[in-house]
Amino acid sequence: GGNNQYGIFPSFSAGWVVSNEGFWKENKWVKSLKVRGGYGVTGNDAILNFGYLSTIVGGRNYTYGTGGVDISTGSSPSAPSNPDLKWEETAQTNIGIDATLLNNLTLTLEVYSKKTSGILQTINLPGYVGATSSPVGNVADMENRGVEIELSYRKRFGDFNFSTNGNVSFLKNEVTYLGNGINFITSGAAGFQSMGSITRTQVGQPYNAFFGFQTAGIFQNAAEVNAYKSAEGNVIQPNAKPGDFRWVDTDGNGTINDNDRTFLGNGLPKYTIGLTVNMDYKNFDCMIFAQASGGNKIFQGLRRLDILNANYQTKVLSRWTGEGTSNDYPRLTNNDTNGNFGKPSDFYLEDGSYVRFKIIQLGYTLPNKLVSKIGASKLRLFVTAENLLTLTNYSGYDPEIGGSIFGIDRGYYPQARSLQFGANL
């Protein structure tokens, strides 16, 4: 259909095995080479059934009669209709190569660009419209560009067999359109306690980037408070005390307010890595699976702000307690007039990079002459460790933060480390 109401989308792909051509000269470095590319469009309609109609909802009670004493149950439209509603579309272009190197090494390299248009979301209407719920519409466009690399190696050395497969993916995400005259939107799901929304989706920025105040160290004494002045010579934070954060006056107007909030990073990893290793020697075998990601921020929100004496982490012991004691953790006070803890800022943001050994399994297959005595053809004993080790500087429970908004840690329960023993008979 003209507006893809029925989800009809084009796609095609093509490849060229260069190493099969007559001009290709055999060599020991590159055994085979294929160049390929493709383009395709996929659709998504998963938001609301019959969203293009103004559906009728019951439970609309109203009164009538003299004095309005009689009550009747009625029905009314729940939201305005949107006859222009259509499928969300993602168009992807990819160019890649597949190669075999040195007999035992295979390489896949792919460059991709994904452009999503007409992203489906609910539309916030002003209250005077009188709608009881929000309609849905195609409200935004977004781009994802990146590179994916995969390497595989396999080799046998006598009784020792070894194979490994690793991949790395780089991603750049950018919002390109949010509607006519709309530069940014915020999401209620991105709120944190009394701070309101701590992310912002803005044209030219990644989706749901962290948006808050930037710190520039801690005032060590009253002289530093008085010396922090605007271009006009006025003290920028006249109510600050030694031990308070120095906020960056990003708009240069000499006052710290919401206009000084800026983009501080985002929760989308710039790269992700996966690695699988398989080894076996005679009757012993071993499998290791590890994963990693980096280049993202996590909003570490483990502490409740509405309870003044809520538990702190032990890093509070290195807080500012006097001149020269700390330049990154402010003083503790129940009268936080400077908003050291109440303002959304880079104080709450931490590096979310990690390396995790997700699965490690060791196995031993008993000799046939032993297992045949019990009428079996094979008996393998194994031990499996899951989430055995995680290497990260993140101070929360788990750097793998999901949820409705990536990167906001409200105390998600950590993934358990487990040890399993078993047998294959």
Summarize this structure briefly:
This protein has 425 residues and is mainly beta. The protein has helices at residues 222-227, 368-371; strands at residues 11-17, 30-44, 56-64, 70-77, 88-101, 105-122, 136-157, 160-177, 184-185, 199-202, 209-212, 215-218, 245-247, 262-266, 271-281, 284-294, 297-300, 349-351, 354-365, 380-392, 408-409, 418-424.
Describe the model.
By secondary structure, this protein is an all-beta fold. Helix content is 2%, strand content 46%. The strands form 5 sheets. The chain has an 11-stranded antiparallel beta sheet with strand order 1-2-5-6-7-8-15-16-19-20-22, with no helix packed on it. Strand 5 and strand 6 form a beta hairpin. The longest helix has 6 residues, at 222-227. The model has no long low-confidence stretch (mean pLDDT 92).
